[in-house]
Inverse folding.
């Protein structure tokens, strides 16, 4: 297995960085550093900061999107509408992300790119994130994937929250429309906002994943209702339907004629309990699930498969210090695949199952330096026709080590821009059922993400 | 000026002083009775979920967080807004009518409390 040090070139039993690659990496790092320094004023989506007057660090661990702190969860729960009343301009934000990716062995190159060592502006994202009106708030993104030259409506979450009282306790309840089950979730222990979002189009990833682990992303739309009772008990139910294929094709999502089609309504549910102990320790435990009926390869004459995912999750956060923030998350997803249709059309087994376990720990110092580590493990039944791996096993496991640096997004910096430098190493000890050669898929990634709210600089406070 | 005018003016002035004195004493007494109660904001929470005050009392909201707040009070046809309340800056408002008032922070939506004026 290649270690991180090996990948950096200190000890490279299999694949040292060649001089040209060293030069490319050095040039890339220098460019990133220049970009950061050039962007020097600073503040996830800075349009939220524009609206609230709060820096990114108020809502996010590490001051740049993703992991939510208690206030970030409240801001989302109440529908993205909170603010200090000073902003009258549209809450628009843009994010430009770029990265350098190196994999342990060369891969089939993407069009216009090399088999390895690719530096690229990976995507440009435009978002409406904040208050819409009439108590409605939205977090909606359009993304241009510049590696694949595709546009997509990537994430849409529109909310309206109300407050009331049940059994003498406060309740926050509301309606939510979104385009991916779990996008509306308040915690970072469920798949959509779990751990880090920094991935690379140039890296390999295991073939098997659970339905709720991204397979429905952007392909469905749904509406649901949620309620948080006494700031402790969260319940939610939503119903999704597959979006029109022509619409999806226009969004850049691959929908070949043989792509699976989901039949009817896809129900999603969520239950969670949260509590903070003496304003120092925060704990959440929960469960979630989704079920879909699927026409495999869009063949509609042999009935449907039924896929049922049930997940458990937990979040811990140490919230007792302004300088030190510690968080840990874990989730376990069990997928039950009843393959009535696939068994007839593709000769799969009549049923399969998949278990996904992930756990991560993250520490943030001053919301500036944020190291993190994740362990992941996927296991399941053996079925070459269903999981599409060489030996039929979906098993993959490994780890992720990440370091993020966010110089801005704090109390004393501006609210209209922010940036994050990061480096990430993904190591595999098993990949698609094989331990031999698993580390060939190990990936080293270094990148810069910069976010701007073009109107944010005009808000007077 | 006629000879009887001076006593009448003096009498009128005395009455005016007397009435003014009574009004002033009443006003001072009322002010003394109307108290000021304090609610703290710390760790993005109000120090109490519910506060009972007497009609005419004032409530002073302190900010011991290191972030700004934006207090909004609504109820009984009354609204008040602190504007951007910086750390350390107090915000005081009187409650002149009996009834229930909802208090919240515009920036931090989970900060909510109730003031009951009796």
């Amino acid at each position: 297995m290649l270690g991180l040090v090996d990948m950096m070139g200190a000890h490279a039993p299999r694949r040292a960085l060649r001089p040209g690659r060293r030069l490319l990496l050095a040039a890339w790092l220098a460019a990133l550093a220049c970009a950061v320094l050039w962007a020097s004023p600073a503040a996830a989506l800075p349009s939220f900061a524009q609206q609230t007057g709060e820096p990114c660090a108020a809502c996010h661990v590490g001051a740049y999107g993703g992991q939510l702190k208690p206030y970030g969860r409240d801001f989302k729960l109440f529908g993205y509408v909170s603010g200090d009343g000073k902003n009258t301009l549209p809450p628009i934000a843009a994010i430009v992300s770029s990265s350098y990716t190196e994999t342990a062995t060369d891969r089939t190159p993407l069009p216009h790119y090399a088999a390895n060592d690719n530096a690229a502006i990976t995507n440009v994202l435009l978002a409406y994130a904040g208050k819409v009106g009439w108590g409605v708030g939205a977090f909606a993104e359009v993304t241009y994937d510049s590696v694949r030259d595709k546009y997509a409506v990537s994430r849409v979450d529109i909310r309206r929250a109300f407050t009331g009282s049940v059994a003498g306790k406060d309740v926050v309840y509301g309606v939510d429309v979104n385009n991916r089950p779990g996008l509306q979730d308040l915690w970072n222990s469920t798949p959509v906002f779990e751990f880090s979002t920094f991935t690379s189009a140039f890296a390999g990833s295991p073939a098997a994943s659970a339905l709720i682990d991204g397979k429905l992303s952007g392909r469905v739309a749904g509406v649901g209702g949620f309620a948080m009772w006494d700031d402790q008990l969260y319940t939610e139910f939503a119903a999704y339907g597959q979006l029109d294929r022509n619409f999806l094709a226009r969004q850049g999502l691959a929908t070949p004629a043989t792509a699976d089609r989901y039949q009817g309504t896809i129900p999603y549910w969520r239950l969670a309990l949260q509590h903070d102990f003496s304003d120092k320790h925060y704990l959440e435990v929960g469960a979630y699930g989704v079920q879909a009926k699927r026409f495999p390869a869009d063949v509609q004459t042999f009935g449907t498969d039924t896929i049922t995912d049930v997940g458990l999750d937990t979040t811990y956060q140490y919230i007792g210090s302004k300088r030190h923030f510690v968080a840990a998350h874990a989730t376990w997803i069990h997928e039950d695949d009843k393959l009535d249709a696939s068994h007839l059309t593709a000769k799969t087994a009549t049923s399969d199952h998949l278990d996904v376990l992930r756990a991560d720990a993250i520490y943030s110092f001053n919301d500036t330096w944020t190291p993190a580590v994740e362990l992941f493990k996927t296991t399941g039944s053996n079925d070459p026709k269903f999981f599409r791996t060489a030996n039929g096993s979906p098993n993959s496991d490994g780890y992720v080590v990440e370091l993020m640096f966010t110089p801005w997004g704090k109390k004393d910096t501006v609210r209209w821009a922010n940036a994050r430098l990061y480096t990430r190493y993904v190591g595999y000890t098993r990949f698609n059922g094989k331990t031999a050669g698993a580390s060939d898929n190990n990936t080293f990634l270094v990148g810069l993400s910069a976010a701007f709210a073009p109107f944010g600089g005009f808000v007077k406070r | 000026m006629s000879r009887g005018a001076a006593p009448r003016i003096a009498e009128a002035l005395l009455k005016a002083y007397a009435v003014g004195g009574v009004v002033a004493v009443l006003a001072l007494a009322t002010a003394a009775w109307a108290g000021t109660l304090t609610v703290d904001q710390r760790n993005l929470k109000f120090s109490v979920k519910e506060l009972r005050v007497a009609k005419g009392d004032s409530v002073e909201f302190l900010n011991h967080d290191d972030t700004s707040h934006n207090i909004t009070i609504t109820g009984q046809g009354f609204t008040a807004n602190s504007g951007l309340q910086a750390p350390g800056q107090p915000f005081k408002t009187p409650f002149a009518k009996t009834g229930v008032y909802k208090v919240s922070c515009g920036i931090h939506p989970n900060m909510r409390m109730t003031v009951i004026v009796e």
Q: What stands out?
A: Chain A has one domain: 19-458. Residues 19-38 of chain A form the longest helix (20 residues). Chain A touches chain B at residues 52-54, 58, 70-71, 74-75, 77-78, 81-86, 163, 170, 231, 279, 322, 411, 461 (CB under 8 Å).
